[in-house]
Design a protein that fits this description.
UDP-N-acetylmuramoyl-L-alanine:D-glutamate ligase, 14 strands, ten-stranded mixed beta sheet, single chain, alpha/beta, globular, four-stranded mixed beta sheet
Length: about 325
């Protein structure tokens, strides 16, 4: 079953999620067990994962389409109503044998006290693999850039990834990948690979705590992997952009960090938007780094608008 909403020029493919934030307060300990009693006050639902990337693309002024998998009819409806109105195309394939990925965070007195996840990382069945591949094939002539948002929840199987990259390369459409798998060879053929330092360390086993270590690890990956750029995110230290001829260190401005949820999605979305508008890779990375810095100053799964980015840059 497919729920289809109407086309943007950036296609986001990957693991869609629902981010649920339940806020309340804790005033006492339960008499039943030594645990706090949480009193619910508000409940908010936001699109997460690949859906958050698509949402941020729209809020940054780009046009996005989205392909993903949900677990049942009700969740697909929640996704649909949570989307930014400018997400023109969303294809959510329903797999009734799996739960939708839902991350529920309980926040008491402004502090996150527990997160409850509903998910599976089991690979999607062959018929949904076929449906995703066919949908990409149908859309490819209307797409200028593909963003792959991999959270390792079973949607981006080897077969799906191989097919997407083949279709993209055959049609000269560039692909940006935010990887989760330790096996970076799965992403060979992408244009930009965007791991964080922990993911790069897991993939290579090399020290990624310094600029020199990251550069060496990227060089090792690029010996075997057909990618043009690696953009390594370094949390409060910014980003490092590596290609075969040059390394660009992109430092972060000092920010007061309230919440890091979704900041990587914001960076990925901003990178895609600026590149799709004709920006250079370096300039687009600077914009992505700046947008992520704004995102961490917000609570919860948030978006950053083009106006916020421009105003914040002017103030800086």
């Amino acid at each position: 079953m497919l729920y289809h909403k109407t086309i943007g020029n950036i296609l986001v493919i990957g693991d869609v999620m629902l981010d649920v934030f339940i806020e309340g307060r804790v005033d006492r300990i339960s008499p039943e067990a030594p645990v706090p009693v949480f009193l619910t006050e508000t409940r908010n639902i936001y699109p997460g994962g690949a859906a958050n990337v698509a949402n941020n693309i729209c809020c940054m002024g780009g046009g996005s389409s989205l392909i993903g998998v949900v677990g049942n009819e009700e969740d697909s409806k929640i996704f649909d109503t949570s989307f930014h109105p400018h997400i023109l195309d969303s294809y959510l394939f329903v797999d009734t044998d799996r739960p939708s990925t839902v991350k529920t965070r309980f926040i008491a007195n402004g502090q996150q006290i527990v997160r409850v996840d509903s998910e599976t990382s089991n690979p999607i069945p062959a018929e949904i693999e076929n449906a995703i591949i066919n949908q990409v094939d149908v859309m490819i002539n209307r797409i200028s850039l593909i963003v792959i948002s991999d959270y390792a929840k079973g949607v981006l199987t080897d077969r799906v990834l191989n097919a997407i990259l083949k279709i993209a390369n055959n049609n000269k459409v560039q692909v940006i990948v935010d990887p989760k798998s330790r096996d970076f060879m799965r992403y060979s053929g992408a244009w930009i690979l965007k791991p964080n330092t922990a993911e790069l360390h897991a993939a290579t086993g090399m020290d990624t705590s310094s600029v020199e270590g990251i550069q060496a690890a990227c060089a090792r990956v690029m010996e075997f992997l057909s990618v043009e750029y690696m953009l390594v995110t370094r949390a409060e230290h910014g980003m490092l952009l590596v290609n075969r001829n040059k390394v660009t260190n992109i430092p972060s401005a000092k920010r007061q960090v309230f919440d890091v949820v979704g900041a990587g999605d914001t960076a990925l979305a901003t990178l895609a938007v600026f590149i799709s508008e004709g920006g250079s890779v370096v300039d687009s990375c600077y914009a992505a780094n700046y947008a992520a810095g704004i995102a961490v100053q917000k609570h919860g799964t948030s978006v950053v608008t083009r106006e916020e980015l421009e105003n914040d840059f002017v103030r800086a």
